[in-house]
Amino acid sequence: MKIITVLNYSTKFVLILALSFLASCKFNPEKISTPKPVLSDYSVGEKWVWKYKGVSGEGEVRSEGIDTKTIVNFKGELGLTSGNDTILVSDIVKPKKSKTPRFLWPLEVGKKWKYETEFTSADGSNTGIYSQDAEVVSYKKVTVEAGTFMAYTIEFKGGITTSKGVFSKTDDVIVYAPEIKNFIMMTQDQDGFSYTEELIEYSNKNN
Question: Taking the model in full, what pTM does it have?
Fold first, then answer.
């Protein structure tokens, strides 16, 4: 009987040690670091579908529809189709040298940077600078119509200054899911105008 008692105490002690170890290894989103996707992460047939909607400050719907992007075989290379356009995935994943990038890889909770880019209007009549302060504020489960994903929420706060001296306050929020190498939600508020995109479908024939 004494031997059994000793064995029972030993088993309990090992169990306590195991539980203590698991507790010390508890998931910590602030320690997760996600690099930029590489070419081998993509495959032919992979598809993302978003719904989008733009609403004025007066409640008028200015734009609404569906946006689909698909990975295809394009002249022997991986291409990303969007409408009638196709761009090489190798160009998308290529490292871009910029001191003010849209995304500063690797993504980590708490990371901050300045996003800045110049733009020209479609008719060429206006130019300006898009400048925002960016911060990765969280990494957690986020549910959208396409499903539930672990995702980073990145806030961009700033605005657009045109060559004519007009400033428009512009705040964006992008929710990026590493699992599918894309954003699952995006919102933009610009002087009363609100624009949203939400992923409604994701598929990968290789999964």
Answer: 0.84
